[in-house]
Amino acid sequence: IKFYKIRAKTLPPNPESYSETYSGEQFLIYDSTQEKLGG
């Protein structure tokens, strides 16, 4: 879980960057879910 949170904070909020680094949508959705749940 920490891996995802760290990567999300390190990378710029750019869908293309996320897609290149990880599975794109799933990565963004995961990050969004974590923020909604309060981390």
Question: What can be said about this structure in brief?
Answer:
This protein is 74% helix and 0% strand. It has three helices and no strands.
Describe the structure using short key phrases.
single chain; 39 residues; mainly alpha
Structural description of this entry:
- The radius of gyration is 9 Å and the shape is globular.
- Helix content is 74%, strand content 0%.
- It has three helices and no strands.
- It is an all-alpha fold.
- It has one domain.
- It has helices at residues 2-10, 15-21, 25-37.
The number of helices is: 3
Q: Unreliable runs, pLDDT <50, ≥5 residues?
A: none
Return the average pLDDT rounded to an integer: 54
The end-to-end span amounts to: 10 Å
What Rg do the Cα atoms give? 9 Å
* Beta-strand residue fraction: under 5%
What is the number of domains? 1
What would you call the structural class?
A: mainly alpha
Sheet with the most strands, sense and barrel status:
none
Please state the overall shape, judged from the principal axes of the Cα atoms: globular
H/E topology pattern: HHH
Percent helix range: over 70%
Topology:
Layout: H1 2-10, H2 15-21, H3 25-37
